[in-house]
Amino acid sequence: MLVWFLPVFLVLLIVGLPVFFALLFAPGALLWLNGQERDLALLYRNLYNGMDSFPLMALPFFLLAGEIMNRGGITERLVSFAQAFMGHLRGGLAQVNILSSILFAGLSGSAVADTSALGSTLIPAMEKQGYTRRFAAAITAASSVIGPIIPPSGIMIIYAYVMGQSVAALFLAGIVPGLLVGVGLMLTVRALADRYDLPKAERIVERDATIAPVEYWVSFALLRLNVAGVLYMLSWLLPAGWGEGGLAVYLGLLVPAHFALVWYRGRVSRDFRIVCKKAVAPLQTPIIILGGILIGVFTPTEAAAIAVAYALIVSFGVLRVMRVADLADVLRRSAIASATVLLLVGAAVSFKTVVSLSHAPEIMADFILSLSENPLILLFLINVLLFIVGMFLDAGPAIIILGPILGPVFTGLGVDPVHFAIIMSVNLTVGLATPPMGLVLFVASSVSGERVETISKAILPFLAVEVLVIFLITYFPAISMTIPRLAGFAN
């Protein structure tokens, strides 16, 4: 009888019961009807145990860091930075929207935060430039799915927690797929630009802008440190162990880094330089997070706490656009977002308990293997299943419920665990922007004032590109696995 928990759960979702309550009520009711009242205590005990995890502490910290960055005026700086590079192209503001999502992904790791923050800025600007509101909302929703793919990613932290994988490996594996989604969307906008005569935009919105002395010197130092870091990584490709000098070689590379930036400075306008310098401090966040994790300085959870500290330093000490009075609202918003995510995680862990009691994993595994013995065909079918699930269920609970069922099946067929994690994470993330129940569609509708139905129609060309990327990731493992392998986090 317990195998009926999934149909009951789906029926509860269809009638409009919130996901959190459906995750608990469906298995709880069936346990009671099945005479297993003792297991009810286990069900609700796991609601707390599912949230009581050190790795999961990274989620509220990353959400808080993103909220601080957004309140600190970071969104406008990233949009101006993206526009300086992409604004002159046909369909410029649509391209800026996509590039801004790529940059914002390294700060928040949330599709909802991306849609809300960038949508409130770019949708009115695009409408003013002559874009239709539904197109502006559609490209905002479509590009927002990049947020949970490029690290830091909340859903990858959840997957690593549930499946016992390395968070660092999943973060690294998400870089190229996230960029690939972004490039695919940009090419789609370029194709649509000629057909619908999409307008260009100005490269520099704010002329004769100024920059505070503190921010100027911070960006001055960070730019040289970053360029020296790139040169240091390239030095490892040279013969005779050029890159083996450690700190001494890195410090020595600060000199050519300085002269390279001075040379570039003379070839761009003053306004372009100011826009870039204003984006330098915010863009250090993903570098700090990934760099610290990769060299082993701190764990992903500690990296999230460091990101919060850095966001506070940048917002209060460098940019000086945030006041102490703003902290109360920032903490309130991030607490509500964190509670929502963690309650869903706890409920999904409880739901997973009934999954194991019902022997659903074994039944599902036997059913999947009975369909075909060819892993390529099975991967195609699972992608279709995940895409459908993503239309109705948020990515976090879907990973907790389906990960333990599907993961062992495909790793047993020879699929790398990290590769399957990326397939599942990207697919369910795209589901956030998929009609009829995609969460970011409703956020985009709320921000833009456009109906969900009209946004759903306008987003279809972009969804087609994202589905294509999913299959590229599925059948060409090197796309996601090369960077983790080079870094030593995957075999």
What is shown here, in short?
With 491 residues, this protein is mainly alpha-helical.
Tags for this model:
single chain, transport, transmembrane transporter activity, 491 residues, globular, Sialic acid TRAP transporter permease protein SiaT, mainly alpha
Give the helix/strand class.
mainly alpha
Please tally the β strands and state the result.
0
Number of helices: 26
Largest sheet: none
Shape: globular
Helix content: over 70%
Span between N and C termini? 41 Å
Radius of gyration: 23 Å
Are there runs of 5+ residues with pLDDT below 50, and where? none
> What order do the helices and strands follow?
HHHHHHHHHHHHHHHHHHHHHHHHHH
The chain-level mean pLDDT equals 84
Query: Strand share of the residues?
Result: under 5%
Explain what the structure shows.
The chain is an all-alpha fold and about 500 residues long. Among the domains are: about 55-205 and about 285-345 and about 435-490, no CATH class; about 205-270, no CATH class. Helix content is about 75%, strand content about 0%. It contains 26 helices and no strands. It has helices at about 5-15, 20-35, 35-50, 60-70, 75-85, 90-105, 110-130, 135-145, 155-165, 165-175, 175-195, 215-235, 245-250, 255-265, 270-280, 285-295, 300-320, 325-355, 360-370, 375-390, 395-410, 415-430, 440-450, 450-460, 460-475, 480-485. Helix 7 runs parallel beside helix 23 (about 440-450) and helix 22 packs antiparallel against helix 25 (about 460-475). The longest helix has about 30 residues, at about 325-355.
